Amino acid sequence: MQVVLNNPILYVVDYPDVDGLEAIDKRRARGMYLFGDAAQRFRDELADALKRGEGADELDLCIDQFDGLFTQPAIYQ
To answer: What is the pTM of this model?
Structure first.
């Protein structure tokens, strides 16, 4: 398990041993788990967004592409 990103907008954990990735949109308290090709695509899109900067605009563009997959409620305890 490797925390890839943890900022006020997005929390991303990569699970390379199982080729999976978990992402939580903190603003909407919704999360998703991806594996295989979908996880790799998210990794690629996130890397491109981070190359442009860690601002909200760059991350919004990345998150918007996967918006329909953020379906799991994220409950903080």
So the answer is: 0.87
